[in-house]
Amino acid sequence: MIKEPVTNIPSVGDKTAEQLQLMNIEKVGDLLFHFPFRYDFHELKPLTEIAHDEVATIQGIVASQPHVQFYGRKKSRLTCTLTIGHVAVKAVFFNQNFLKDKLIPGEQVTLTGKWDERRLQITVHKYHPKGFEDQTIQPVYSTKGNITTNQLKKWISYSLKASLSEVEELLPEQYLKEYKIPGRQQAIREIHQPRSKVSLKHARRRWIYEELLLFQLKMQWIRKENKKRMEGLVKKYDEHQLNKFIQSLPFQLTNSQQRVLNEILTDLKSESRMSRLLQGDVGSGKTIIAAIALYATALSGQQGALMVPTEILAEQHAESLQSLLGDRLTIELLTGSIKGKKRREKLERLQNGEIDLLIGTHALIQNDTVFDQLGLIIIDEQHRFGVEQRKTLRDKGVTPDVLFMTATPIPRTLSITALGDMDVSTIDEMPSGRIPIETYWVKENMLERILNFMLKEIQNGHQAYVICPLIEESEQLDLSNAIEVYEQLQAWMPDSIKVGLMHGRLHPDEKEEVMRAYAENEIQVLVSTTVVEVGVNVPNATMMLIYGAERFGLAQLHQLRGRVGRGSNKSYCILMADPKTEQGRERMSVMTETTDGFELSEHDLKLRGPGDFFGKKQSGLPEFKVADLTEDYRALEVARKDAVRIIQDNLIEEPEYRVLKEMILSDPLIQERIFD
């Protein structure tokens, strides 16, 4: 029966079947998996325990003939008296005159509504049919078209009787026992017809685990299949020489950096092609890890490539890597502004294998950029490049290892879920001696004081950023707003202080020029839209003022704040904001309380939800029926651990995992997804 069309259910015709199809219900068994989206808990309470204005469910005997009063067009007021024990209670129903014939004196009724303790009156939202007292937990379903909740409940009830026994168990017995969760059939019954809050809780636990385990199994399956297809270039390098370089560094790696480095070096030495995300907060020391990995690659006789989103960032990386590795490797820079003979010579040397490491922008993916033996690609701020651009660079080598880097901390729950088919390494501690940025939240009436403080910082030889707010989705409005702030600051600051302007409408060359002037302290105050969010390293900048800070998400505010505090001087971030909502006020408070990007990303996830975190279109996050990524992160960790073991130990081929395996292989995600 489970695979029969819904038209086999009494009272479901072709037209109804079409409407059910809009809800992805085509077969009788589909009704079993159309879960309630919430529950109404109608707990019967004595009148003495109901608070004034509380929505409550009461039960009493109808003591008077109901009276209907009509007023206005299609408006009515139905009243009657109930007796509950020795108390007379007035029941008022608005626009429910059709209930008049159901309120029969002497019979018991159950009603839910808003309780008025002073008047001993209930304003009824819902009249419950007879026998309701046995079902105090009422499921609420989403419906489409003309289908009503009561019809849906009736058909689900039919499906439970007709087809529940055909539902196969997915999970081996050991999981049910270990996690104390009900079997699949029982969990389906309880989710639709819960006997109690406790039984519903256990059914929900079962579905949360099942949904997350299935998704994680698919991710692990994809990863395993990819690794089969992704034989990498094993990097055999002189470990003594690499360790000598690490020991020569003017600082010691943190425990977190050491752990992450070991993960990356293990990948480089393995036969499988690396696909790893290295995430770490601004200033956590990702660049040195990248440098060591690139040096190991060069020691193995292979070339490395580092791709970054902007020319000035490429130049800064080239400068820092030159100072670290210049006496050991041949390092070259390739950007769009390097043209003619100079460019041709570099490309020729690259193809001949004379360049160990090439650093650049999109110029790295041009057709004429040909490597001799590309072994490792590092893509910085990987979210700034499209899938196609990343793929083009990857195709420059035979099977190069790929390391993506990001300073946008991804909450653990999302990295486990959205990046389930990619390895994730996290630097979660800061190098010692780094001075935390002091963050303050102020109102606009303090602007004069803030500008005086900024002037003092500049007179002490430092620089400042002034960030203008996002205004709706209009780049034009953002621009005019930035120009206005720029003109005000120019008028306010002494002539000796140069104010610069940066915005998205500038030509890339003009942007580079403004940033270069700022980096060299030719500009002391840089007024900008959010285009500086990812970018240059200006250790001399010690202050940032963000106008309209309530308009930004926590992750973006944190990224912006990371532009200061890069030198040895104390730095400040001033959030000028007047949030109108509780959520907005909470965001500002959180920003002043912590500088930990991972802590902020978890807050952001709670406030905005997983879809908004990546942007719904590219998040790739599944729609779960019961599981919630922000609430169920512990279950997610357990599901991931179990999925890794099931796939790595090949348990999926065991007889008791048969149904799980069939479920995985039938999923379009497995059939269509390829390694990008």
From TrEMBL:
<dbReference type="InterPro" id="IPR045562">
    <property type="entry name" value="RecG_dom3_C"/>
</dbReference>
<keyword id="KW-0378">Hydrolase</keyword>
<dbReference type="Pfam" id="PF19833">
    <property type="entry name" value="RecG_dom3_C"/>
</dbReference>
<dbReference type="GO" id="GO:0006310">
    <property type="term" value="P:DNA recombination"/>
</dbReference>
<keyword id="KW-0233">DNA recombination</keyword>
<keyword id="KW-0227">DNA damage</keyword>
<protein>
    <recommendedName>
        <fullName>ATP-dependent DNA helicase RecG</fullName>
        <ecNumber>5.6.2.4</ecNumber>
    </recommendedName>
</protein>
<dbReference type="Pfam" id="PF17191">
    <property type="entry name" value="RecG_wedge"/>
</dbReference>
<dbReference type="InterPro" id="IPR001650">
    <property type="entry name" value="Helicase_C-like"/>
</dbReference>
<dbReference type="InterPro" id="IPR014001">
    <property type="entry name" value="Helicase_ATP-bd"/>
</dbReference>
<dbReference type="GO" id="GO:0043138">
    <property type="term" value="F:3'-5' DNA helicase activity"/>
</dbReference>
<dbReference type="GO" id="GO:0016887">
    <property type="term" value="F:ATP hydrolysis activity"/>
</dbReference>
<keyword id="KW-0547">Nucleotide-binding</keyword>
<dbReference type="InterPro" id="IPR011545">
    <property type="entry name" value="DEAD/DEAH_box_helicase_dom"/>
</dbReference>
<dbReference type="InterPro" id="IPR004609">
    <property type="entry name" value="ATP-dep_DNA_helicase_RecG"/>
</dbReference>
<comment type="similarity">
    <text>Belongs to the helicase family. RecG subfamily.</text>
</comment>
<dbReference type="InterPro" id="IPR047112">
    <property type="entry name" value="RecG/Mfd"/>
</dbReference>
<keyword id="KW-0347">Helicase</keyword>
<feature type="domain" description="Helicase C-terminal">
    <location>
        <begin position="446"/>
        <end position="606"/>
    </location>
</feature>
<dbReference type="GO" id="GO:0006281">
    <property type="term" value="P:DNA repair"/>
</dbReference>
<keyword id="KW-0238">DNA-binding</keyword>
<dbReference type="InterPro" id="IPR027417">
    <property type="entry name" value="P-loop_NTPase"/>
</dbReference>
<dbReference type="InterPro" id="IPR033454">
    <property type="entry name" value="RecG_wedge"/>
</dbReference>
<dbReference type="Pfam" id="PF00271">
    <property type="entry name" value="Helicase_C"/>
</dbReference>
<keyword id="KW-0234">DNA repair</keyword>
<dbReference type="GO" id="GO:0005524">
    <property type="term" value="F:ATP binding"/>
</dbReference>
<comment type="function">
    <text>Plays a critical role in recombination and DNA repair. Helps process Holliday junction intermediates to mature products by catalyzing branch migration. Has replication fork regression activity, unwinds stalled or blocked replication forks to make a HJ that can be resolved. Has a DNA unwinding activity characteristic of a DNA helicase with 3'-5' polarity.</text>
</comment>
<dbReference type="GO" id="GO:0003677">
    <property type="term" value="F:DNA binding"/>
</dbReference>
<keyword id="KW-0067">ATP-binding</keyword>
<feature type="domain" description="Helicase ATP-binding">
    <location>
        <begin position="267"/>
        <end position="427"/>
    </location>
</feature>
<keyword id="KW-0413">Isomerase</keyword>
<dbReference type="Pfam" id="PF00270">
    <property type="entry name" value="DEAD"/>
</dbReference>
<dbReference type="InterPro" id="IPR012340">
    <property type="entry name" value="NA-bd_OB-fold"/>
</dbReference>
